[in-house]
Amino acid sequence: MHGSLIDSHHRLSLTSSAPGVLLPSSSVHTLTDNEQTKSLSKINNSFDSLSTMHLKKTTVHIDHAAETTAETDAEASISHSTNFFRWTPGYRHVMLTFGTICLFAFMTGVEYAVILPTVYDYVRKLTNANIYVGLILSSYSISGSITGIIMGKISDMTGKVKFLILISAVFEISGNILYFVANNIHIVLLGRLIAGVGMGAVPPILADVAHRTTEGERTKAISVILGCRQLGLLIGPCFTLLVRLMNFRIGSVHVHNLNGPGFLMA
């Protein structure tokens, strides 16, 4: 009697929980776990898709940035390497400065070629000590090597190469004036020391040309400058023909064929 009541009670509870369908409790729990697994898999898939999209976008942005940087570098290199040797508006002052540098190099070569053949006779006229011949020839290079280091440092600090060229030209002119107006061997030696200061502008000049040119143009530009100096050494002896004809006075100073090179270079 009691067993039949308990069985009927179980049947009523099962039919009330799911009308029309008899489901065991284990099947209900199994369906719930499957649904949770499906939802978790969907969430994971959504996260994976989002992360994949983010990585793709990041990769696209990186690639775009790399392409933009490469294009910018290419444009910069093209704009920088648009021929150093050109005569265009806005760039002519650079070419005029480069022409001045070439003229400066040419005159340094002429100075060696003009003074060297006459310095021995000039020293013998002022003194009998032959040691001054070596001192006068070497003093020019000694002062130039010392001032080259100083002017190179000034050029690195200020970047005013044109100003250094003007200062060097002033020293060259002053030294050569002393060379041809002097009536004392010590003043002649001092003149060559002062003129040698002008050679100190050579290192800043070459450094500035190297900064303004690309790798393909640098060798050509420096070769032109050094070629102008060699041209001065080649043509310089021809100026001795002009120096031999010098025989005049500037005030109380007698300009002749021995001190004429100083007048010519000044």
UniProtKB/TrEMBL annotation:
Compartments, as annotated in UniProt: Membrane
Main location: membrane
Listed InterPro entries: MFS (IPR011701), MFS_dom (IPR020846), MFS_Domain-Containing_Protein (IPR051068), MFS_trans_sf (IPR036259)
Record-annotated Major facilitator superfamily (MFS) profile domain positions: 97-266
TM region(s), chain numbering: 94-119, 131-151, 163-181, 187-209, 221-243
Annotated GO CC locations: membrane
An example molecular function term from Gene Ontology annotations: transmembrane transporter activity
Keywords: Membrane, Transmembrane, Transmembrane helix
Tagged with keyword Translocase: no
Membrane-related topology note: Multi-pass membrane protein
Protein name according to UniProt: Major facilitator superfamily (MFS) profile domain-containing protein
Species of origin: Rotaria socialis
